[in-house]
Write the C-alpha cells for this entry.
Amino acid sequence: MGWIDVRDIAASAAALLGEPEVRTASDDYLLTGPESLSYGDTAEAMTAQAGRRIRVRRIEPDEQAAAYRAAGLPAEFAAALATVEDGIRRGREDRVSTAVLDLTGRPPRTFARFVSEHVGEWRAK
C-alpha cells in the first residue's frame, strides 16, 4: 500500500482548495506516499527505530470481521472492512502516484520519515 502521511493529504487538499482553477469536476487524485509497503515492511521500519520488535499477526477475514463486530461495528460494515483488509494484505492496493508532488510541488513524505518523527510512540519503555 502507498502509505501516506496525513500532512501530505492536508497539503494536497489545500492546494486543490486554494487553486480551484487547476481542477475540473471530473478530476480524481490518487493520493499516496512515494512507495508501496506491505504491513510487514511497515513493521520492520518501526522495529528498526523503536528498540523493540513490532510484529504483524496475520488473521483470516472472518476473524477480522469478528473483531470489528466485537468493537461495535455493524456486521455488514465489519465484513466489508475485513474484505478490504484482506485485499490490502494480498497486494490489491500496491499503487503509488505522483499526485502529492503534482499538487504541492514537493514529494510526499516517506514512511521511514514518518516513523523517525513518531518513534517515541513505539519505543520500548
